[in-house]
Amino acid sequence: MNAYLILDLSINNFESFREYIEKIPLFIKKHGGRYIVQGVEPEVMEGDWCPERVVILEFPSKENAKEFLGDTEAQPLFSIRHKSTTSKLILAEGCS
């Protein structure tokens, strides 16, 4: 069953974040993932959720998504994201 990582982020330091943008696609692909939505400015349709940017990644399974997040080689990049953005991340399984 496919799984989705949904990232809501505001970029606080684009120069620092640039390295993450350039290098993280390799790790996404390594774990069978792909971009569904890549850093777009969403249009709010209901409610008070107002993310600045949204990224949605699709993985073949919840396990693949968790392996991506736990990849020791990618940790320095996640650290860059944590330091250069304000972000929220959720994992959701899709329908079979």
From TrEMBL:
Domain of life: Bacteria
Matching Pfam families: DUF1330 (PF07045)
InterPro entries assigned: Dimeric_a/b-barrel, DUF1330
Gene3D superfamilies xrefs: 3.30.70.100
Domain DUF1330 as annotated: residue spans: 3-94
Coiled-coil positions: none
Protein name: DUF1330 domain-containing protein
